[in-house]
Amino acid sequence: MDINPLANPKGVKLLCELCQIPAFIQCKFCNVTYYCSIEHQKADWVGIHEKICDKLAFLRQPTPFLPSREEREKRMRQIAIKKIELIEMTRTLAQKMLFEGKHEESVPAAMQSLRYAIDVYGVATIELVPSYLILGEASIGLGKLSQAEEYLAKADWTVLKTPDCSRAIKSKLYRNLGLLNAAKGEFQDALTCFADDIYHASEEFGTDDIRTAGGYFHMANVFFRQGKMDVADSLYRQVIDIWHEHLADVIKARTPSEEEEAMSRTRVLGPVKGMFEDVSSGMDEAQEAEAIQILNSIHDIREHQTNRRPEDLAQTCHALAMLYFVFNDIKRAKEYGRKAIVASDEVKDDDFSKSLVEFMKLCEKQGAQI
């Protein structure tokens, strides 16, 4: 990463990408982004700039002279599309980093999404709320609760004055308000917010959707912190059931049947190489990171419980094994698959045992092709 110290051109006010104070360092790759210090340049590079440097070069360069109205309108449409793509990309990356526990690193991406959302949609529109929520969650993770309250208050006010606001956005708002209250130790208020989160997510996506599962998970965490393990266990169980079914469906939908395998073997070119290469999680990067966070957290809790039910650990391990399988991490898929088999030895469930055996066979097939 090169830097280019500069003296601001006369009459031109250059501002730092992160803090908006006067800037004296220019990115030498895009030549349109500026920083007040090397520290802020490095933070932005790690957080988001490396991934969007070329996109910013296109968006921020001076508009060339275009002789016809048609050409000017075409360019304006291109710029608008690029800005919307940038908003979605930066939000997804920021949310992914939050699920990975990288709260500070997520801020530059979230700020970038907010900046372009304001540019495209205006200063007081519902389209800004997802960026406010990400910034609020990042602030909670960093322990900056007053700052988090400011971001979430802006989001809450915007939602209140938008009658047709989607339930998906309301769900995310209440989830973040729940996280804020939990961080403040206000557990009853947190539970109320998570209940609202689950209600709106259920109405939008269904009670057994992975986008609803996060609300159950965070509610379980509050009961866990209060020492109410019976309730927490019940909710963790529900989360695992949702993810287990989702991942099983993903693998089933993308695994060739016996007939398809037989047909592939009869082709002139022989068996199709990498028959599972199209296995995907059916999730974006943020959802994948959320799955890793949630399933591993519950697994850690299950492993350290002295009075756990063996079927709870077995199903959690199986869900993790399937998750890593769709990520094509066959080594970890097998590792958790074996742990599920060990845990299932105490479970008298023939169907579950059979599903584990079939899953391990899939792992062997996939592993042989890598």
Automatic annotation (TrEMBL):
Keywords: Metal-binding, Zinc, Zinc-finger. It comes from the Eukaryota. One of its GO terms (molecular function) is zinc ion binding. Gene3D superfamilies: 6.10.140.2220, Tetratricopeptide repeat domain (1.25.40.10). Coiled coil: none annotated. Residues 16-53 form the MYND-type domain. PANTHER family: ZINC FINGER MYND DOMAIN-CONTAINING PROTEIN 12 (PTHR46533). This is MYND-type domain-containing protein. It comes from Elysia chlorotica.
